[in-house]
């Protein structure tokens, strides 16, 4: 495996900082094809690559991306779970969430947990994967919404105004939901 920074990066090697670092949360998205995901996020959101770890075959295993300074990671995962292909009708038909008798659909019911601890843990994992939503704050949610749909995203909610925000929601080709939003002036 090889890795490289794709933008200039200088590790901090100076004196101790006078204030502690500010905490930062950076999403880590599992996808079936990291190479394809990096291309989609570049086309849909203008993401740039900050770091890349290539596998033995020269394909991306892990990449750190930035959208206007907001960073997130993608990782190649041959089995990232049902969310990875949520926008695919074939995947939806075969996913546990699509099957009404699945514990993932009824994770809170006693029947879902009665079968075994492993089934319970599995249902929680499926449930947790489907509950994450990314919010991308942008200057022009209408333009980014249209751009992401052109790049292959599935519209979930058209851009509209509500609760002081202009927002729309898409699902990317890997099953991750994104809200594209801008806070409106008061």
How would you characterize this protein structure?
The protein folds into two domains: about 1-10 and about 25-80 and about 130-185, Roll (2,3-Dihydroxybiphenyl 1,2-Dioxygenase, domain 1); about 85-130, no CATH class. About 25% of the residues are buried. It has about 190 residues and is an alpha+beta fold. Strand 4 and strand 5 form a beta hairpin. It has a five-stranded mixed beta sheet, with helices on one face. The chain contains five helices and nine strands; from the N terminus they run E-E-H-E-E-E-H-H-H-E-H-E-E-E. Helices cover about 25% and strands about 30% of the residues. The N and C termini lie far apart (about 50 Å). Residues about 85-130 have low confidence and may be disordered.
**Uncertain ranges:** 84-129
Q: What is the CATH top level name of the largest domain? A: Alpha Beta
Mean pLDDT: 76
| Backbone shape | globular
Tally of alpha and pi helices: 5
CATH architecture of the largest domain: Roll
Main beta sheet: 5 strands, mixed
**What is the number of domains?**
2
Percentage of residues in helical conformation: 10-25%
Distance between the termini: 51 Å
DSSP, total strands: 9
Q: Which structural category fits the helices and strands?
A: alpha+beta
């Amino acid at each position: 495996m090889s890795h490289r920074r794709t933008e200039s990066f200088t590790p901090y090697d100076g004196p101790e900082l006078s204030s502690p670092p500010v905490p930062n949360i950076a999403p880590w998205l599992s996808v079936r094809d990291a190479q394809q995901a990096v291309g989609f996020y570049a086309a849909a959101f203008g993401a740039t690559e900050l770091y890349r770890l290539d596998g033995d075959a020269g394909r991306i295993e892990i990449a750190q991306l930035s959208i206007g300074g907001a960073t997130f990671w993608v990782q190649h995962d041959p089995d990232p779970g049902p969310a990875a292909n949520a926008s695919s009708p074939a995947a939806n038909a075969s996913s546990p969430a699509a099957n009404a008798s699945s514990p993932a659909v009824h994770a809170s019911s006693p029947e879902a947990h009665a079968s075994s601890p492993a089934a319970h843990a599995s249902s929680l994992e499926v449930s947790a994967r489907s509950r994450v939503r990314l919010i991308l704050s942008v200057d022009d949610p209408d333009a980014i919404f249209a751009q992401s749909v052109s790049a292959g995203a599935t519209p979930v909610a058209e851009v509209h105004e509500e609760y002081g925000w202009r927002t729309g929601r898409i699902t990317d080709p890997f099953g991750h939901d994104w809200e594209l939003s801008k806070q409106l002036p008061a």
